[in-house]
Design goal:
The protein has seven helices and four strands. By secondary structure, it is mainly alpha-helical. The strands form two sheets. Strands 1-2 form a two-stranded antiparallel sheet. A hairpin with a 2-residue loop joins strand 3 and strand 4 (221-222). Helix 2 packs antiparallel against helix 3 and helix 6 (154-172) crosses helix 7. It is flat, with a radius of gyration of 25 Å. The chain starts with 7 loop residues before the first helix and ends in a 6-residue tail after the last strand.
Length: 228
């Protein structure tokens, strides 16, 4: 099962970015630093203080470093894209669909909705397609002008949803249950008195309403995106 636990140290990102939001240039630099550190560790592991053959560990460190170098290079190129240094195609070559501001209000059912916020791979493809002679091009700042207010990544939305659900689970046990009369700190019970893992719907609904009001959630979507 994928580990979704986030430690306090992991949540503290102040050491990896200068402002309140990380830039792609900062991502590229930080990844490059980690890559170098891994290569240094691999080199150091060639002469361990104890007689242990670490060849497999060394290979793993160097493989991880190579993967990080590819990601770092990609982030560096994306940093140039978002700064407007790299021309981009105005439309996707395979579907002729627009992206960015031009995609607002368009229907793109075959791809899960309009491509307002492009992915990494879409931007790389748009940069490649822009090299074709005669095709109309744009830049990222031009195509994305006005987009970003209130937006958050899918990963951030999933994390915030996970945090919300965890808060609801705690809140449930703070509330008495109208259905089975379970008290504070007690799990809901069946008619026969068996403890149930899931609370009754009324108790669950009350807990969700309390937490959603506190965190700013409405249904499955956040009402207010932090730091937007």
């Amino acid at each position: 099962m994928k580990n979704t636990h986030e430690s306090a140290a992991e949540a503290d990102t102040s050491a990896v970015m200068a402002g309140r939001l990380i830039t792609l240039d900062e991502l590229a630099t930080e990844l490059s630093a980690i890559e170098l550190r891994l290569r240094q560790l691999a080199r150091a592991a060639e002469v361990p203080a104890s007689p242990v053959e670490l060849a497999d560990i060394i290979d793993t460190l160097r493989t991880s470093a190579s993967n990080l170098r590819e990601t770092s290079d990609r982030m560096g190129f994306l940093a140039r894209i978002v700064d407007g240094d790299v021309p981009l195609a105005t439309r996707f070559r395979d579907s002729d669909d627009p992206w960015g501001v031009a995609a607002r209000g368009t229907d793109r059912p075959g791809y899960g909705g309009p491509a307002i916020v492009p992915t990494v791979w879409q931007l790389l493809k748009l940069a490649q397609d822009a090299k074709r002679p005669g095709d109309e091009t744009t830049t990222y700042p031009e195509a994305m002008d006005g987009i970003g207010i209130g937006w958050e990544s899918k990963a951030a939305a999933v994390r915030r949803r996970r945090e919300r659900d965890a808060a609801v689970a705690v809140e449930v046990l703070r509330l008495p249950c109208e259905k089975c009369e379970a008290g504070e700190g007690e799990q809901c019970k069946t008619k026969a008195g068996w403890a149930a893992e899931k609370p009754h719907v009324v108790r669950q609904r009350q807990a969700e309403a309390t937490v959603d009001a506190r965190l700013g959630f409405l249904g499955d979507n956040p009402v207010a995106v932090p730091q937007a």
